[in-house]
Amino acid sequence: MKKIALLLILLSNVGTIPQLAVAATRKVTPSAEVLQDSATVVHKKKRVIKRQFRATRSQRMQMQLRQAAKHNKEAQREERLQQRIKKDTSR
């Protein structure tokens, strides 16, 4: 009787073991979900896992807007420096 009960418990948990393993290896960051690739690289006795970042559409748009604002800021800074140089040389 105990053997049958033990066997039933083991069989009921067989499907959940891989899911638990996947859940344990997957990490979720606030910005994007990190998905692990099957490809692993062993280098200097360290296990390095290649990761794929999958961002949602809105996150990609926000990233693009941030990059555009950053570039605009840099361009304006350069322009101001050029104007200062012109003013200094004209005096």
Description:
- The protein is α+β, with helices and mostly antiparallel strands.
- Among the domains are: about 25-55, no CATH class; about 60-90.
- Helix content is about 60%, strand content about 20%.
- The protein has 3 helices and 2 strands.
- A two-stranded antiparallel sheet has the order 1-2.
- Strand 1 and strand 2 (about 45-55) form a beta hairpin.
- The protein is rod-shaped.
- The termini are far apart.
- Mean pLDDT is about 70; it is low at about 30-40.
- Keywords: Signal.
How would you write the strand order of the largest sheet? 1-2
| Straight-line N-to-C gap | 101 Å
Global shape: rod-shaped
Multimerization status: single chain
Q: Which strand-content bin applies to the residues?
A: 15-25%
Mean pLDDT: 71
Give me the count of strands.
2
Radius of gyration: 27 Å
Number of helices: 3
User: What class would the helix/strand composition place it in?
Assistant: alpha+beta
Q: How do the helices and strands follow one another from N- to C-terminus?
A: HHEEH
Q: Low-confidence segments, ≥5 residues, pLDDT <50?
A: 29-38
Report the helical percentage.
Answer: 55-70%
Main beta sheet strand tally, sense and closure: 2 strands, antiparallel
